[in-house]
Amino acid sequence: MESEVAFQHIASMNNLDDVRNSIAETAWHLAHMGWSEANAGNISVLLPRGTEIELGPNPKAYHLSEPVRSLAGRTLLITATGSRFRRMRTDRETQIVPLAITEFGTAALWPSSYPGPTSEIGTHIQVHSLSPDLGWDSSAIVHTHSTGMLALSSSDIPGEMLGEAVERAHPEITTLMRKGLSFIDFTPPGTWELGRVTMEEFRHSNAVIWRKHGILGYAEDIEMACDYVEMTEKAAQILLLEKSAFGGFQGLKDRELDSLKEEQGQD
Ligand SMILES: [Zn+2]
User: Fold this and answer.
1) Rounded distance from Cα 32 to ligand 1 centre (Å)
2) From 41, 48, 109, 144, which residue has the greatest number of CB atoms within 10 Å?
3) How far is the CA of 194 from the centre of ligand 1 (A)?
4) What is the DSSP string of 15-84?
């Protein structure tokens, strides 16, 4: 029995290392793309149920503005406040913080030897709170400040119109992002309110755009969350190129969009 417990502990540690590595690789990739300047961007992974982390003595705490009961007792890994994505492969042991949600879902605790989690922790926790209802044992959020979407979302075009233009700009959005994407008007970063609105949008979106700020992707695993960010950013770049080349957005015509949706319905 004891050896079984020890084995589970080792398996859990290996899993933590794997998740830490995937966060570090994704962060480095985003920095390499030029989408995470300075300390921009944050990533988190909700760990599978039963994954334990060691908090050590006198853990630090972030008190949630309202309880998040669906994550009570769950654990996460999240990038640290002030961490630099370009350095994340080197800093993976110190700048990716283990978090434990308390048993009543009222606070998040982390070991005192680590820096604090990203200031967007409120968004990460609220969005992950959707995962149990989606049937996901684990989930990931990737947030970055990609250039094309920052520029595009700074326009005065209403979010719904912009959303449609993005959908028409790149067929991948229709075929691989079945819930599509949503725009949220500029809201001060690092607030619980921004997290609440973002969570609501993720009920029916694969990616959420914080206008004049950046993109978030949310999925069952980190690769897919990053895919959503990449496809959304690519669509934004296509729109900006079309505007400068042709004076307006081009994109898929109605019949082309319909045929894509029909094809999608067949699988
Ligand atoms: Zn940001």
Assistant:
1) 17
2) 144
3) 11
4) HHHHHHHHHHHHHHHHHHTT-S-TT--EEEEEPPTT------SS-EEEE-SS--GGGTT-EEEEEBTT--
Identify residue 206 by its one-letter amino acid code: N
Residue 122 C-alpha to ligand 1 middle, in angstroms? Answer: 13
Q: What pLDDT, in 10s, does the model give residues 240-261? A: 998 888 877 777 788 887 887 7
What's the distance, Cα to Cα, between the start and end of the chain in Å?
Answer: 46
Q: How far is the CA of 118 from the centre of ligand 1 (A)?
A: 10
Write the burial class of residue 9 (CB in 10 Å: 0-12 exposed, 13-18 middle, 19+ buried).
exposed
Given this structure, which CATH class describes domain 10-264? alpha beta
Paired tokens of 186: 């500029």
User: 40: CA distance to ligand 1 center in Å?
Assistant: 6
User: Which residue ranges make up each domain of the chain?
Assistant: 10-264
**pTM of the predicted protein model:** 0.91
193 CA from centroid of ligand 1 (Å): 15
Q: How far is the CA of 144 from the centre of ligand 1 (A)?
A: 6
Between CA 199 and CA 222 the distance in angstroms is 17
| Residue whose pair of structure tokens reads 């503005």 in the numeric block | 65
Q: How far apart are CA 30 and CA 230, in angstroms?
A: 9
- Average pLDDT score, the chain: 91
In the reported structure, the alpha carbon of residue 146 is separated from the centroid of ligand 1 by a whole-number distance in angstroms of: 10
